[in-house]
Amino acid sequence: PTACYETVEDLQELAIKTPYNVDCTWSSEATTLREIAVKNPEKLTNSFVLSHFKSLRIVDKKVTEIDEGLLNFKNLQQLTLSANLISLVDSQRLPKCLKNAVLYQGK
């Protein structure tokens, strides 16, 4: 049997339709990362993904702490963690390139 492959154009169209169209409001860069995943999936290394994001918005997700993993986001400039359960922020766990952190309505 012969394998059938989708064209890049077909995959791009599918990416914007249900059930593949997902909420990307958690980052301004999420949509472009999805496009890269369709057009150039070989680029999606862990390092590439972590350096891709300049903004993250994680609101009301019951986050309790900011761990060292956030330091892996080398280009993160905007971080919103509002309405979570964070009671203490250790600045050593924030990326050096971070320009804006929004943490209101925390614990």
What fraction of residues sit in β-strands? 5-15%
Indicate the radius of gyration in whole angstroms.
Answer: 17 Å
Q: Mean pLDDT across all residues, rounded?
A: 87
**What low-confidence regions span 5 or more consecutive residues with pLDDT below 50?**
none
In short:
With 107 residues, the protein is of the alpha/beta class. It has one domain (8-104).
Key terms for this structure?
107 residues; alpha/beta; single chain; three-stranded parallel beta sheet
How is the topology of this model organized?
Layout: H1 8-15, H2 30-39, H3 46-52, E1 55-57, E2 78-80, E3 100-102
Parallel strand pairs: 1-2, 2-3
Helix pairs in contact: 1-2
Protein name: Dynein assembly factor 1, axonemal homolog
Keywords: Leucine-rich repeat, Repeat
Organism: Nematostella vectensis
